[in-house]
UniProtKB/TrEMBL annotation:
Membrane-spanning segments: 33-55, 75-101, 122-142
Protein name according to UniProt: Bacterial transcriptional activator domain-containing protein
Keyword line: Membrane, Transmembrane, Transmembrane helix, Two-component regulatory system
Domain Bacterial transcriptional activator, residue spans: 845-991
Gene3D superfamilies, per database record: LysM domain (3.10.350.10), Tetratricopeptide repeat domain (1.25.40.10)
Biased composition (Basic and acidic residues): 338-349
Pfam families: BTAD (PF03704)
Residue numbers spanned by region Disordered: 1-23, 192-213, 296-371
Lineage: Bacteria, Bacillati, Actinomycetota, Actinomycetes, Kitasatosporales
GO BP terms: phosphorelay signal transduction system
Biased segments, Low complexity type: 353-371
Biased amino acid composition, Gly residues: 303-321
Amino acid sequence: MARRTTPSSTGPRNRTPQPLPGRRRSAGDFVKAFFAFVALAALVVGVPGALAYFVGWPLPGGAPSLDWLQQEITVGTFINVLTVVVWLAWAQFTACVLVEVKAALSGVGMPGRVPGAGPSQVVARQLVAALLLVGATAAGFAPGLSQFGQSLEGNQKPAAAAAQQTPGVFGQDQQSAAASAAGALAEQAGQAAAKAGKGQDGDTKFYRIQPPEGRHHDSLWEIAERHLGDGRRYKEIYQLNKDREQPDGSRLSEASLIRPGWIMEMPADAHGGELVEMPDDAPKVSEEVREQISDYAKSGDQRQGGGAQESGGDRQGGGGSVDQDTAHITIPEQRPGGAERGDGKETGRETPAAGAEESADASDSSESSFGLPEALIGAPLLAAGLLGALGRRRRHALWQSAMGAVGLRRGMEPPTPTGSAADAQDALLVGADPEGVRLLDRSLRGLAAALTEESRPLPTVYAAWLSHGDLHLQLAQPSGRPPAPWQLGQDETFWTLARTDAGRYGDVDTAAPYPGLVCLGTMDDSRLLLNLEAVPGIVSLAGTEADRAAVFASVAAELATNGWSDRMTITLVGFGADLTPLAPNRLRHLEDVEALIETMEAETRQRRGALGAAGHDSVLTGRTGPAQHTRWAPHLVLLADRPSAEDAVKLAELAADASRLGIGYLVGSDSGDLPGAAWEMQITGEGKLLAPLLGLELQAQRLPDALRRAVVELFVDADPRPGGGGDGSDGGAAVAPPFLVDVSEQGRPAVYARLVGSYEIIGLETPDGERSALLHEALALLLLHREGVHPRVLASALWPRGVTDDVRDALVDRLRDWLGSEPDGSPRLRADGTGRLTLAKSVVSDLDVLRSLYHEATQGRGSGNRAVRGRMLTDALVLVRGPLLADRPQGRYGWLTHEIIDAQLPLLVADIGLALSEFHLEKDRAEKAIEALNAALGSAPGDERLWNELLRATHAVGDPARLRTLAADLVARSGARGLPPRTEALLDELLPAWRAGAASAG
């Protein structure tokens, strides 16, 4: 038995790995060599001889004429055509034999690839290997080839590790191709093995990695289970080998591609496999040889594997029953130089996986994390979905507040979050990657549109990987070449889109092709999104109840708010009743499994019938072409607790055909042994999501219970509720803005910023240098959030692609110096008790003054004094000089997309215009009222209330012609949508003949 020698050992050392012990040639080897010689002679010499003797030369003796094309096609013509095809096949095979013989005899480099001759070259390689097996040359140049002959007989030794490359169905062709790749890789390893790691004290063993037996995929877990008796000891193998460079130049990671031919160090108690001796120092492999090994491996075990997958495609198509061993999720190979492409996307939130890793690093320091929940900061897609949904909810609440009945009125400001809700909102702002969501959505829809144009169906996608800005789709089986700009990835089951190419896609009017994608976590800087509706069966999740709940809550929240789907139904069973406010139209809650089974049995029957009636074999074919966007929306079931044995069997029966119908099941389990589970996962207390049979170990994406409650609180508080309900309102009165300015003469600010219109600052010197724009943007963000801005929120707003803490702190110090100090010496930029940055009251914006004037005019001093009210409303309307930050530079102020100020400001201006119009109409000053309303319409042109009030004021003037002109202008503005019902009713009252005038104008 070969053992690792300690540094104190003496004696000579082998400089290259050698098989131990050497195997003597057997009679079977000579028999194989004889038959290989006969086969080669028959194919290389016999075929052309037989063709020449029996058929002769099939091509015409001279140049063909037009008469030749008009001759009758006879049996001889078909024979000649077939003969030409056989001649071409013979020429190709002969070229393969020559290439393989040259590589075998020279012992240098890898065999070249003959174009289009994959299977032929594999056969030639086997015959040449068998022929040279009995000679000294073969034994010296490729010890792996001697093993290859045995593997064909089914006597292959157990693998110490396996190649982890491609999901799919793999047969004997795949094993043969993988074995040939292993033999060639062993040839290079024999001459140029990588430097061995120093390892740990004590004896260890070295194994040569052979092609896996019976299937293609393997994992460190299963290696440890076979050779160490406990899969949990896989980290011992990883620690022994993680720093060792292998012959192809790669190094082992916890989820790396383990290739045949590698030399792996194993603990001393390992058993099974092929033992070799390993030197402490071996020459490295040249870059050219590395590329040859990589190309050869791809042509040998991956490309040939595609054919095997296609042969098993009928078992995977349509979402039917699939061998669990083939449904693997594999991390994609990275493009060369992926982190140095110069596109600036390798860090920050624009690269979700990278952003998550930076956030994880930041979480190690309490100084840098400031107590924000890292679970949301490290989940950029989830955070973007929640932030977008929260913004829509708040905009809708504003509209309801402005347009709704009394009792919903709350003013222009949503409640300011406090405590854990404020921390959750800050974490959403820091972690969200809306640009990544937008690119993902456009890329998937663009792919669907391109496939529709080519009349091709959507391929079944098991998972999507976001890795350094690139998108990788992992298909259930090969589906040909993808449409440009998509490219084939590491094999035919990966379709890859570079981030730079994804930017070319625009908005397309097509249904979301894969709405069931949901993020589970990260692995090796890559973010995994599992397509729940495509899994051929149930996905089970084992672990403690609290850990499972955190994963289930994350999955439910992302599915409910993601930006890459149109419609879906998410059924939560046994948990998540409080999550429904996130998306009441998507989420529904059922109390028990019995109700779920009854519901799903009915829906399964309905979907089967609908698919059959529409002539589709799966929902994917229904999402391309002329199908309606909402016809094949997915239904995803999340069952947190393990069902009873009887219910589990019923669920397994329902899930057997679920992927074809667009239905997915994620079911919790205590132990993981759930009937009908296609994929089994486990969540640990440390936040690791393990799926040993899939070769996955993810850093799980979770939404713990306390954080879930905080997020739900944000959505609940965003909804307007009659009668107050804890939002600080009394039902009919508007809520005061969070910051009121002294609008008297004594309240002159020290620093005044104009934000409504062009950005101007009064009271400060303009900063010198290129940092001026950055300081102005930081001040604008602080002015729009008088409640305070978290330092990490400020940094993520100014540097969306990420920034280090020292750069952020330097900017804060520079901003503090620029704003200066109060007369008492206190800085105008300070930090409150929670660490958030706040401005002194002496730093004011025109938006603050605008809000304060309106509040004072309607609820303060002006409410009891008509003269004060009129003056304040007039002063407020004069402050409106245009849209917010009208001249902001392009490419900056991207954080405004997260704000609702774009909805608040027009509504506030409209309220001011309406109040001032009412003020003038009380004294029958209709022209003054019209002037105020027109001024407000300049900032809120789509506000129906302003138009209706303008109609009333114009009617009060008593000029029917002017009223008809206004009505015609209003009809023209409404376009094909038509007038709102309230406006139509008002015109019917004020101008009964307006419809006839509109018809004649049309």
